[in-house]
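Two records follow; treat each independently.
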Amino acid sequence: MDSDPRIVIAEDDPLLREGLALLLRAESIEVVATAGTPEAALAAIDEHKPNVAIFDVRMPPTHTDEGIRAAVEARRRQPGLAILVLSAYVEQSFATELLSDGVGRVGYLLKERVGRVEEFLDALHRVAAGGTAIDTEIVAQLFTRSHRDARLERLTPRERHVLALMAEGLGNSAIAKRLVVTEGAVHKHIRSIFAKLDLSPTDHVDRRVTAVLRYLEGATARAR
């Protein structure tokens, strides 16, 4: 990570909440607070000023989207706060809200991924360092659904594959390794993606984050 992480965990399941805390502390990662409700999580974030917050999507009282709404509010109160969301289900809509500021620092993992410790920690590191980390299963489901967004339709199959890997949070070298191509080829694909999505290098946002956002926005629209 780019700095020593200080983490607040918001999870209503006490076993998972304490299990996450133990896992992170075993990796010498500081957990400054844990919370079982959105209100307690926001209070802890206000008090401790962490640089990463881990939120469950479905929290009390209705167990629908309280965790997402609390994550959005936490980001409003502390701009740039890295958010890693955990869910037992594929739910796309949260990502557009958290990515819409163009800052990044957002991850979305299925809870089953926590059991794969290396993958979970890798995602946490990527998010804390300013990137994105979208679960591979979520990306796969998004791309299997029909879509008619004109900008995304401009992309070739290979460019859409590269964009999917970008959404997972992979950097250029990791994408090159996954596709068995050179980094130069990946860089060329990404330049083409930016051009086809009308992302100018003069834009005052992270073009990589914005490209992923447009992809996720399209997925959310077609899921409605």
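The next record belongs to a different protein.
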Amino acid sequence: MKVWDTEGFLFDDGPQARLIDYPYHGLERFVARLRRRNPPQAPWWRRYIHTWQTFDHGRDVAVASQEPLVYGLTQVWNEDDVIYATVRNLFLQGCDEVFVIDDASDDESATEAKAAGATVIQDASDGKFHERRRSERICTVVDAVTEAAGRPVWWIMVDADEFPRGPGALTIRDLARDLPPSVDTVGSRVLEHYPGRSSAPRQRHHPLDELPSARWHTNPSCPEGHWKHQMLRLRNPGELRFMLGRHTIAAPPQRRPIVESTSSLLMHHFPLRGKEWTQQKFQRAGSASGRYGASSDSFVKRRLAVRLEMLRLAYEERYDLIPNMFPNTPKHGTPVHDWRHLVNPSEQTVHHTPGAPM
């Protein structure tokens, strides 16, 4: 049973389906506790994963009549340690323009973003974190800029700690140029990176230079196992939109299903960076008057507390004790490896000079 929200976009398959699923998922959760594992995703979400899109299985060949427009977009709140590198990565991946929505940062995030070449959009904020409001702001900017462009745009939407790249030796622009015209979105394979005792991330450096240890992120949002779908071709304003967290793409009910390419991005995720900087930001955000502490989103508050514990244990290199938030995985324990050992040889290079400012 599909239910559409007030704006006509698919959100989930309804409270009645959740009620029917409750005994089954309750048993799954009970078994998971006995096995000291995280429970699987709810049944309604698993069904949604298998129904929100189809896949283009054709050969990816150059078919575009003109060079595609590729725009990058991110939203920041106090990310001046990394936003310069985030913006530069998007330009190095072939973006024509990069837009940064600054959610009332009181550090140097806007200055760093501008120095990297981004167009900064100031966003008034009430000081609280609201994922739905954040997503609506993103969609408003995407629609407005696409309308001004007057032709289809490939959008790359990232959080400030996310560094996507094209598959193999391709950049994202290379991929956009070669995708069949039917494709709407491209999923991301995600490497979750962790610091260690000697980690010392530096401003304006690609985090890969100082944070090479990683593991695969295993929390799929589509049958191909992609956690996020950050690459979206918007042909007309309002036709498609990024859903909450950029995990899936939504379309109005009357439209055909979303078409995802069988190609995928490789995304490096760096939620834990410099020890003191990250700790101070998390503690400030989680305080009673902080961005997350003042929010009504209990999940975000719990995740923030877990992130603080993960940060402490990672810098002690006690990876076997790190809390695990992924479904169908042990509650604790995160095996990490040098990221280059986890990818194909063609993806072991980085589009910048290692050890040098971006």
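Discussion point: The two ends are 48 Å apart (CA to CA). How would you locate this feature using only the token line?
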